[in-house]
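User: I'm preparing a small set of examples for a lab meeting where we compare how different chains pack in three dimensions. I only have the primary sequence for this one, and I'd like the structure in token form so I can line it up with the others. Please keep the answer compact; I'll paste it straight into my notes.
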Amino acid sequence: MTRTTLRDLITAVGVAVAAAHAADAAAQPASPAAPPATATHKHYEPVAAATQAGPDGVMAPRLQRLGTHTVPVSTTRPLAQRFFDQGMRLAYAFNHAEAGRAFREAARLDPALAMAYWGQALVLGPNINAAMEPADEAAALAFVQQAQARGRLASPRERALIDALARRYSGRTADRAANDRAYAEAMRVVHRRFPRDLDIAMLYVESMMDLRPWNYWMPDGRPHAGTAEIVALTEDVLRRDPVHPAALHLLIHLLEPTATPERAERAADTLLTLMPAAGHMIHMASHIYQRVGRYADAIRSNQLAVDADETYLSHCRAQGFYPMSYYPHNIHFLWFAASLDVQAGLATDAARRVAARISDDILARMPFTAGFRVVPYWTNVRFGRWEAILDEPRPPASNVFLTGAWHYARGTALAATGRLEAADAELAALEALMASPALDQPLFSPNSGRAIMAIGPAMLAGEIAAARGAFDAAIAHLDRAVRLEDALVYTEPAEWAYPTRHALGAVLLEAGRASEAETVFWEDLRRNRENGWALTGLVQALRAQGKQADAEIVDVRRRAALARADVALPGSRFGRRAGATNGGAPTSASAPAPAPGITVAQVALASGVTLEYAERGPRDAQPIILLHGVTDSWRSFEPLMPHLPADVRLLAVTQRGHGGSSRPDDYRYAALAADVAGFMDALGLPRAVFVGHSMGSLVALRFAIDRPDRTAGLVLLGAFPTIKGHPEVQAFWDTALARLTDPVDPALARAFQESTIATPIAPAQLDLFVAESLRVPARVWRETFREFLAVDFSSEISRIAAPALIIAAGRDTFSRRR
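Assistant: Understood. Below is the structure token output for the 818-residue chain.
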């Protein structure tokens, strides 16, 4: 565990590199085969227009598991009634095209049924998620007129609904806004005439919602005109019929943007299982689950919705708005929930799935689908996958929003890895795009692309300024980003990459303004309840102020929020200077920036483990992987890296449980060596030279024994085949580690680091090493030292075939030769 001198290590690495080059020249191993191309799963093939009847004249399939809600109409034919009910249930579930097919089938079965034509006209109109297609105006008017022509056979209630709907359509697109208002007013009259009819009540509610989609509340929470009335009416419908599908659905939409979304929590729980084959209704529960912090339930809701919609699409081969918007919306929302739940693997998979549905051709025809294509960019920024971002190809230049997001993501990655001049160039490119009139168009909500993308330059400028240590400027930029995000009309998933307060709070902490960071994180938790990102930052902010009691209370919430996380959070966001608070360890937010030429990044392995690493040198050069000792990090090799030859690629890996890497449960050397293999796979490295110190040397040994074909050379410092029964290590275990708990005592960390130093080092350097040790949770201290006392490589060392150099010294503490 003793640190060697720079001269000795430089010499050792040079020898190993030379040996590895010689071995490579002789062996010339083949490059790994490229992975197979990922196939795009297709849920349907183009079929005849939905308006065409099948061979037997049937206009729609009979769908099962859509619930039992019925709307009795004037027909003597039971099958016509069943298809009318199917149409109403689907209309309430916002599958308007399939509802139209069901209404057409009802009309085929009973041509005299006026309400079958009313239904066809109803679903052609606007709704809160889509404006009316101008091409449908004439058809909608014709259907209403057909319903009116059959009015003599309809009931008074039905004639009232038909006459009200007639106010909605004139056949002229220019009349659309006036007609929508006229329809809502007519439905108000019908509702007052039939106050006990719950379906009429909900049709009235929806007509009012269509007048101002997704905009029912003022920014201060006060209702717009009419909102309080329709909320009260919807809640009254649910008191009279707790399973009314339209009331459940629309109450969620009305209350989700408010400060009290829990008022619709019972509605969400009910809707989750009410209509098992209606994917959008299952999905709707997640709108409330997300708002109240039930992220696991939001994930499950969307997984069920995806399954339901895939079954429906494969059975009915539907086309149009539903498969292009509602089905991918489930996957989009799954990403949204998984991201806030810190499930990087699930979020990444969902991001890839939703983006894969949008080809360049679809993107060109429907530019708003950039909202789906952009999700992998947001995911990689959220989880700090900087190299993955930089490997992303440029998107089609014709889509300005997607191109802007690409520049933002690249700039963020470059700033996070210390390439600030390149980050400046990405910021300039993004700012230039902001002048494009193409950004005036919305994506999925009333928010224009410009309103959403305006957050990007502010966020990126803030990250670049923070990377330069210009914290006042950084905070000003990020505060502006917060205000721009707050100005957006509520929609879901949120249309920006991640909550801007997560970045602002992290930079406030870096700037030493912990009390302000605390305020920012509390506000984010009010908006995004119980999210692990903000809770992590809040614990850091509280501890930085010495509020230990408050920090312990919040830390219980943090641990619960991160129970399903598959990556270790360094703070409230992944960034260049993010610190970690694991089990009480203080943040390293004040750590110095990496030495010039060194970039720091993180990589997610196929196993789900995320490793932090520092890199220097050309990517096509001989890779040298540096593996640190117990409770250290890549920082152990930082003093060495600038002195090594410039024509090698240095990769100093922070091993699991340490620094900014994941904290899984297994700390056996086989698991740590598997991480190294996964790291090499992720970076596309077939072979490497390994430099291991202390614990890192044992990981290198394990790797070289198990994977000789990937080991080009070894340099081992402070290495040993076994220290079973070593009196000093055993005494340290017995007295300090066996019962170690969080928070780790700083005096213990300092004493341990001092015990490993053979020659004096600068106080600041020692302080940095101590700070890195304090980032390691007590359980990782225990497990790594337990492995020290258990390992024995004596019988396996002879299997190592790679060139190796072992450095030992007379003042080695634990690995002295005997």
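A couple of notes for your slides: The longest strand covers residues 610-616. Residues 6-27 form the longest helix (22 residues).

User: Perfect, thanks.
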